[in-house]
Amino acid sequence: MLNDPDAQSRQAHYIDALQAKYPNLIQVILGRYQAKTKTCFKCQNMYTSYEEKETDVNMALSIATDGLKGLYDSALIISGDSDMAPAVKAAQSAGRPLFIAAAFPPGRNSQELRSLMPASFPINAYKIRKAQLPNKFDAQGKTFQRPAKWR
């Protein structure tokens, strides 16, 4: 996405739309992109690819620190990444009753997360579509419209 200005613009628009539609309910914590040189297996040409970094670490830190501080009593982790398990364990170690559940995106699952939580379930593509922002809406004096590429 780093070398795709259109994708960056769509992502920024989406974040703005989320914050406008749900003020004071979400906090956006951005990761970063790291350039990585790769080699094409077929032609051996080298090219630059970009890898998203720190998002899972930022999520895990928020789960753990906010849980330890008592800032939530229930959480829904939408991930199938077992790297979230240490954060869940840390939050649960606070000694307060916490309800933490995992919702696994299509094609994702983690037995480790499943074993730590009283509830977990898969999310299918239909539910993801139903949870998306509307194609067009007004919020905070602005009109937001889903980019054509996302429809």
From TrEMBL:
Pfam families named in the record: NYN
Domain of life according to the entry: Bacteria
Gene3D superfamilies documented for this protein: 5'-nuclease
Record CDD domains: PIN_NicB-like (cd18722)
Residue stretches making up the NYN domain: 42-115
Family annotation (InterPro entries): NYN (IPR021139)
Protein's name in the database: Uncharacterized LabA/DUF88 family protein
Organism: Glutamicibacter protophormiae (Brevibacterium protophormiae)
Lineage of the species this protein comes from: Bacteria, Bacillati, Actinomycetota, Actinomycetes, Micrococcales
